[in-house]
Automatic annotation (TrEMBL):
Class of enzymatic activity (EC top level): hydrolase
Protein name, as recorded: Medium/long-chain acyl-CoA thioesterase YigI
Transmembrane segments annotated in the record for this chain: none
The reaction(s) this protein catalyses: a fatty acyl-CoA + H2O = a fatty acid + CoA + H(+); a medium-chain fatty acyl-CoA + H2O = a medium-chain fatty acid + CoA + H(+); a long-chain fatty acyl-CoA + H2O = a long-chain fatty acid + CoA + H(+)
Catalytic activity, EC: 3.1.2.20
GO molecular function, one term: hydrolase activity
UniProt keywords, alphabetically: Hydrolase
Family stated for the protein in its record: Belongs to the YigI thioesterase family.
Gene3D superfamilies: Hotdog Thioesterase
Listed Pfam families: DUF4442
NCBIfam families noted in UniProt: unchar_dom_1
CDD domains named in the record: PaaI_thioesterase
PANTHER family per the UniProt record, alphabetical: 1,4-DIHYDROXY-2-NAPHTHOYL-COA THIOESTERASE 1, MEDIUM_LONG-CHAIN ACYL-COA THIOESTERASE YIGI
Amino acid sequence: MPSTIDLDTLRRFFRMAPFMVDLGIEPVALEGGRLRTRLELQPRHLQHTGVVHAGVMASMADHSMGAVAQTKAPEGHWVLTAEFKTSLLRGARGVALECEAWVVKPGRQLSFAEAEVYTVAADGQRTLVVKANGTMALTRAEAPAPAA
């Protein structure tokens, strides 16, 4: 039976990952099986050419896919990334990144998820910069998942 995880639980889930905290990525919406995360861009997120570092966008997509897969995982299980692929469509410049992630197929041992990362301009216009897909492995939790 899938656990009942809400947005507040996912926020705690993200705060449990020090790297996500360091980057500043936060869940902002969970609706219709889709998770939206956001990152306010800072100079530390950029590479030498002034665009957002690919590692930042890949990390955002990966953790967002894992988090949304966690919403479909059976009680007492953690979701861990087994494999993921990112396609970098264009350089990202803007004031923020937003990621939308969803589960394509939940499973008992493996779940499949997808994500899209958008750059957000100062005027609010969004541009797709990354497409990602991931295979998530379900493992028995050694420690309890954050309470709903």
